Amino acid sequence: MDLSEHYKEKTFVKITEKKLPFKDKEFDFIIASHVIEHVDDISYFLNELTRIGKKGYIEVPTRLEDNLVFENKKAHLWHLVFDDVKNKIIISDKIQYFEPIFSIGTIKKFNEYFRESLVIELLWDGTIEFEKSNTNPIQKEKISILKLFKKYFSKRLREMIRILKTKFKN
Fold this sequence. Notes:
Blueprint: E1 27-33, H1 42-52, E2 53-61, H2 63-68, H3 72-75, E3 78-83, E4 88-93, H4 104-118, E5 119-125, E6 130-132, H5 145-169
């Protein structure tokens, strides 16, 4: 998608090569917001960010958001978490734990209240510490959203019946 005609005052650079066409430390600050989870060679890309930038900001969806949103199902390749002990990003292959139930528009509404549960925000300075992990949690079958809703409504129904029984007992 070419947006350059809508932003004539901005300079657009079309990237066709793996290596980004910028000098070492050319940028004081780089923002990579909801980009990294789409990149095929994530290690190379993260190293390129630190090559061309002095500092930066990374924003990616959490595993929860990634699993909740329809549009993320096939578009995202990776799950990222931040390990506070090792002080680094841990990268693993994306796993779809359950069938998505929200659109991007709907999740943005949830984001207003639950941002820290849905988005990982990281500042980096000089380097981005990361490691790729081959140890994804083992999952035997996808979590069924339908089963979760059935359990929820079944519990609510039992609660209502209990309340009605106590009210009409007297």
